[in-house]
Amino acid sequence: MKPKVTVLTTVYNGERFIMETIKSVLNQTFEDFEYIIVDDGSTDNTANIIKSFKDKRIKYYYRGKNEGYFKLQRAINFGLKKAKGKYIARIDADDLCCPERLQIQFDFLESNQDIFLIGSSVNIIDKDGNIINTILKKEYPSMLLKLRIAISNPIIHSSIMFRNKGLEYPWHNEHFFYFNVLINGYQIKNMKEILTEYRINPNGLMKQYADLSKNKYKELYLEWKNLQL
Fold it and tell me: pTM of whole model > 0.85?
């Protein structure tokens, strides 16, 4: 029997936080899901940590040599092709799901057939899991949200759940996936509930590739020494 939800994580050298992420998924109040983890060529202890979980819902795939950030969509789309769930929930390898996340988002999409993808509000956490801020999303009307997507990125990637209709990520930046959703005539919405925790990871992709000059968490992203194991 196919699961109702597929949770999808891609990871590369994520040994510091991947265990916490996996636990947050497995501890959901909603239980009818599979958890696909695509390891994009990790060379650290990531694989051993993932394999230490003896839960049949976890489906682990190792893709071999890492192709780099600018080809990240290949790992994501690999996972999407494996997904059997009616809905797909994304969670990055250093972020956390709140316990009722899957249940709340599943119920919403079941009750709102006109919505293809939903995001949520999030807590911002530091490397130690302490809540340092909260981003509360407004439930903008569809047209206004489309405008915001066109000029910025109002969706927190680790908070999204969407219908499994075969749409793929055209580029490494998730913003272009939202464009792909809109181009195909689908609707996007944010929920005001706090359903995920987004981590400021000084060793993550944001630190390596994003422009942090105006980022309010710039100093936390630069805490390299404190992150070492």
Answer: yes
